[in-house]
Amino acid sequence: MAVDSTEAVEREIRIDAAPETVFGFFTDPELLLRWKGIEATLEPEPGGVYRVVVNPRHTVLGRFVAIEPPTRVVFTWGMVGEDPLVAPGASTVEVTLAADGDGTLLRLVHRDLPAEAREQHARGWEHFLERLRVAAAGNDPGPDPWAS
Hints:
The chain is of the alpha+beta class and about 150 residues long. The chain has a single domain (about 10-135), classed as Alpha-D-Glucose-1,6-Bisphosphate, Chain A, domain 4 (2-Layer Sandwich), CATH 3.30.530.20. It has three helices and seven strands; from the N terminus they run E-H-H-E-E-E-E-E-E-H.
């Protein structure tokens, strides 16, 4: 499958929490599960496992590429299963965190997605980043309707 890596899914949000707080929501399985997924295995070091069971039908598998506390996390991304649209580790997610007053400006760039997967991933990141905004600010985003 040909991949056009010139286009990426990009999202920016502001979170009412310090970068040090937000960073943990990408590296600590307990914190990650507050906003995304039902099971997580995270080994936040270059080459370490990034595995998130988003729901019973979708499991993401990749590897951490870069860990720069508290400003940057990069990991590969793909789906486990028969004939996935994005194979495990085939795309890359880069998250940068910048202090913004008493909060954080989060920028997410998901690269190397096949054209036919971009819209689905864009919707997914919008859904999950809104949940992260709530969770990282110390609130409960409630049950994830996508988790079942």
